[in-house]
């Protein structure tokens, strides 16, 4: 019998962007045209964004385009700060080792988020989320994800039905499930769905979370008590009519992924549909809004009080 040759580790490009806090959203948008996601780390000199993409000539050209767009932000009145873009070739094993050094346990509200290789114990009253997102998806480090984690315990009740739209790593779906909800998690990217399913299994909530590939709320059947979305303001505006259709009276929409200057567009879109803004949460320049669909027979004021 012939022995199969051992597969070589796949080569990836690590694209690291060092920019200012002010320009981080624009830099992130440019990076998302190259990669499916990125990690974000705040440094003394600003913000460092790191993405991994399969090595190849096209990827290298795209990385150079990211560098040019970063330097071009000054034309739009944004100071990109250091404006440094570094590209280096890494093996999968090397990346995994480096990732373990960077991703350490941290706390957001009542949640302790830790990787599978950590044995950090929860404090009394804390809920553990075990996250291993892989190379492309978030872990709760980003401010917009933290805002959702802060809001979920306020709107999710045991037995509630929740839709997590744009689930990515599945962290919000897992958090809702551990709060006692039944969750439909949706993402348009099949790789994201695979990552989310792995994290659902790691947290032993497979009986309460179902993951689907699809666009926005299209895979969701029937009505839900809570919709949570951590996407961009433009997508939130587009999704608002679907959210209104799927929410039960009295239900909540946790909308995150906005910066201060884009909140008004989402507020207007939601309010035109009869959704009431109960609370705006802030973390640095990032914003999340908790909307409520008034219960049948109750006015907006009563819904606001509830």
Distance between the termini: 71 Å
Number of strands: 14
The share of residues in extended strands comes to: 25-35%
For this structure, what is the CATH class of the largest domain?
Answer: Alpha Beta
Number of helices, where a helix is a run of at least 4 consecutive DSSP H or I residues: 9
CATH homologous superfamily label of the largest domain: Vaccinia Virus protein VP39
**Spatial shape:** globular
What is the string of helix and strand elements?
EHEEHEHEEEHEHEHEEHEHEEH
Q: How many structural domains are formed by the residues? A: 2
Key attributes of the depicted protein:
alpha/beta, about 300 residues, about 30% strand, seven-stranded mixed beta sheet, Alpha-Beta Plaits, Rossmann fold, disordered C terminus, 2 domains
Tell me about this structure.
The structure is a single chain. By secondary structure, the protein is of the alpha/beta class. Helices cover 32% and strands 30% of the residues. The protein has 9 helices and 14 strands. A 7-stranded mixed β-sheet has the order 10-9-8-11-12-14-13, with helices on both faces. Strands 2-3-1-4 form a 4-stranded antiparallel β-sheet. A hairpin with a 2-residue loop joins β2 and β3. α1 (24-32) packs antiparallel against α2 and α7 (233-246) packs parallel to α8 (263-272). The chain is globular and about 55 Å long. It starts with 10 loop residues before the first strand and ends with a helix. Mean pLDDT is 81; it is low at 1-9 and 297-306.
């Amino acid at each position: 019998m012939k022995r199969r040759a051992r597969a070589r580790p796949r080569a990836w490009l690590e694209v690291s962007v060092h920019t200012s806090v002010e320009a981080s959203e624009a830099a992130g948008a440019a990076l998302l045209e190259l990669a499916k996601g990125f990690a974000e780390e705040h440094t003394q000199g600003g913000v460092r964004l790191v993405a991994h993409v399969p090595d190849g000539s096209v990827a290298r050209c795209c990385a150079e385009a990211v560098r040019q767009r970063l330097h071009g932000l000054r034309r739009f009145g944004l100071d990109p700060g250091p404006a440094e873009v570094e590209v280096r070739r890494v093996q999968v094993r090397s990346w995994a080792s480096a990732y373990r050094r960077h991703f350490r346990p941290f706390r957001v509200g009542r949640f302790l988020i830790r990787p599978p290789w950590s044995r950090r114990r929860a404090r009394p009253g804390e809920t553990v989320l075990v996250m291993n997102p892989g190379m492309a998806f978030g872990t709760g480090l980003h401010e917009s994800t933290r805002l959702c984690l802060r809001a979920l315990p306020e709107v999710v009740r045991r037995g509630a039905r929740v839709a997590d739209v744009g689930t990515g790593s599945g962290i919000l779906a897992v958090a809702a499930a551990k709060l006692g909800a039944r969750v439909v998690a949706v993402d348009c990217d099949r790789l994201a769905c695979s990552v989310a399913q792995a994290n659902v299994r790691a947290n032993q909530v497979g009986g309460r979370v179902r993951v689907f590939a699809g666009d926005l709320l299209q895979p969701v059947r029937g009505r839900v008590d809570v919709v949570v979305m951590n996407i961009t303001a433009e997508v939130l505006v587009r999704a608002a009519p679907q959210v209104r259709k799927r929410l039960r009276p009295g239900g909540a929409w946790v909308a995150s992924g906005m910066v201060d200057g884009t909140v008004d567009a989402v507020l207007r879109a939601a309010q035109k549909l009869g959704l009431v803004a109960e609370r705006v949460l802030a973390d640095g320049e990032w914003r999340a809004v908790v909307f409520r669909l008034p219960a049948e027979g109750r006015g907006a004021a009563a819904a606001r009080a509830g």
